[in-house]
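If you are new to this repository, start here. Below is one unmodified record pulled from the training split, so you can see the exact layout before writing a loader.
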Amino acid sequence: MTTSTDGAGAVRDAALWTEMLIRQFPELLTELTPGRGAPAGDRREPTAAEQAARSARTRAERADALLNQQHHGLAVPGHSAAPVQLHVSDTIRDITDGVIELEEAVYDRLGLGRPRRASVLERLLRITALLGRVAGDPTLAGHVRNEVRRMARRCARALGEAETMVRVRGRCPWCDSVSLRAFPARRAVMCVNPGCRCEEDGCDCATDPAFRHLWPEDAWQALADASGAELPEIAARMNEEAPAVAAARPRGDA
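And here is the target side for that same chain:
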């Protein structure tokens, strides 16, 4: 990805993360209260790994509720009847507040006044529609990208899933390792080597230990030329699932 000094690159990245958040946020509402989701026929069965992770979260939530009651004489409303998944509820609140604050900051910076009330998804769509103007302000573009990325990552963690990734042949142009992976949900290729650091001025991988250099769709040809991969193969990988992760169907961030 690019740095905040490149407004166009930052909003391109922001668009990828916003698209992911728009797709995944409604799933949080489905996950919030067990038994109130979509009809069984419309949902896929969770894998053993997902069931184990959800059971672990439920046990942790119950332990926290019991500790809270013992220390303060307080019970979590509804916990004993239709248990609300607390980590999901907290995530929904955090993302809702974050989207509202982000849109207000964008409107203020662009001199558009105060945005009218709307749902989270409507606000995200409005932010997306303004990215062309946001690109003209590199500082704002970097802020939008960072905030949307943070919220998308938290959303994915709350869903207990990680994003599918598929190996791409060739070597990373920056670290020379065979660590290139395609991420179909973002339609992007990423180097997953934790030690990889690119030489692009200000790229986030130089300052954020959790960040990995990423090539969006319009950079695939350059990547193919530099890595030894082939453009048709990269495009094909965007429609595949890696055998090693197909069983768990991860869908979050790298």
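Two things worth knowing about this chain: DSSP finds nine helices and four strands in the chain. The chain has a mean pLDDT of 75.
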